[in-house]
């Protein structure tokens, strides 16, 4: 009944306004345009633009004075960038852009902000000098914002509109009643528009989740309630592994669909026990209300399990992988900033762990993360200055004890950090965007070394190189390998690329295309660490593989565990049926070697046969093996 009455009232208001204003519409068109366009669009938009410019400038000043943090600056940077983008492309902002001289100024402001984006997101709490320099560099933004605001209300066109208003008092009095009613209608529309704008400002348009700005409000509210009621909170930071590679290989449409699916699953999992928001990109955060601390780890596991379920696509199936980091209030912090930082640190460790996917924050993680950051800088320098090393471990033909190939294994002895473990080195490269450079360095170094051995008379020798998932999935691997072969003059048939099982799971169709391109070059492909990942028999049948490497964990147990022995036997039989050569990793006992020979395993490597060694030592082994 109430809704019907409101509808009738709005209808009556609209009809009354229409009847009283139809006669004056054509005669007062200029006045209406001035009121609706100049005052509402130009005035409000230009004022808001100048206000956002001043807020961003003040945020930089506050950071320099250490009264605000870098996130505060980045928040206002995003708001200013969003405001300018709306003025540049928004249909409702068209009157603003049409003002003389406004569009070039807006485009220049946008370009300057984009140029300085990396500098803004590189700011930290200690970036006082950088904040001052950035403020000076963007000082002209204040003048441009002011220029747009002032010029919007000056000029001959504006004076002509004002003259038109001054000549309209008599006409306006005739329609005063209609205008009063129209004011009521406009007020209702304004309230409706305000609600819509508020929703747009506080929600992510792709997923419908609260955005970063709204999340901080929800977080402050949750912290206040937790403090009053003496209850705990958990903050879960969630990141999709290799999401950029999905966008690059499958397209942004698939990436958007994946993000929407993730948002739906997180909402369904948390339900009424907390709030979920999208911070940006593939990062999601959840605030969970706790009855007891154990609930946090249970929820983190549920969130992870909900995300890794297959996503059905029109052309296939996607198997997402995610990492979850959790921090607790008040154990790990009493402010939202501290909780976010610690949850992000925990998520970072889960993302780069070989075995952990869900991680609760622990003291000391910050120091280890700082080490990773310093390592990334040192690693970039080491790659550029050719300070890395490759050791080589021979792979033997088990029936003749001759060397079939060598596997290139990365080593790095840093002057600052000492000997850096290979797994840590690779994790740092993956996280800080150095994986491509590192892979190319390994490919070139191994290819050059093998070419030298070929020139020394070891013509049939091959080299195995491990390929990281990031370079495999972006579709550039075949081009990179082809370029390296041309530079080094290496015969493609002597290069063996090793990929791990989980590399090919994101996009089976894309994996086949990449592998087929490599096979056309004459390169051999080996599936590394078989048995520890997610490959199914259908994957083995579809992927154009030459070799299969049995993980050392199975080899280690085969002499004591009949099930491990039978499993190795089954893998060898399966590979032989698919015309794949089998390499057994981790042979450390004579009994293991003998059993593998009996089962028909063609190749083997491990400490019992030979340890990894520098290139010079490997050359001596090759020479001895050749003479024997």
**How would you sum up the global shape?**
elongated
- Report the structural category: alpha/beta
Proportion of strand residues: 5-15%
Low-confidence stretches: none
Task: Show the helix and strand layout.
Blueprint: H1 2-21, H2 29-64, H3 70-89, H4 94-98, H5 102-115, H6 117-121, H7 128-137, H8 139-151, H9 156-166, H10 169-174, H11 176-202, H12 212-229, E1 232-240, H13 243-250, H14 252-270, E2 274-280, E3 283-290, H15 294-307, E4 311-313, E5 316-318, E6 322-329, H16 336-351, E7 358-360, H17 365-384, E8 389-397, E9 402-411, E10 413-414, E11 418-419, H18 422-431, H19 435-455, E12 462-466, H20 469-473, H21 477-488, E13 495-500, H22 508-520, E14 524-530, H23 537-542, E15 547-550, H24 552-557, H25 562-577, E16 581-584, H26 590-598, E17 603-604, H27 615-627
Parallel strand pairs: 6-7, 9-12, 12-13, 13-14, 14-15, 15-16, 16-17
Antiparallel strand pairs: 1-3, 1-6, 2-3, 4-5, 8-9, 8-17, 10-11
Helix pairs in contact: 1-11, 2-3, 2-7, 2-8, 3-5, 5-8, 13-14, 14-15, 17-18, 19-21
Domain GGDEF: 231-363
Domain EAL: 372-626
Protein name: Bifunctional diguanylate cyclase/phosphodiesterase
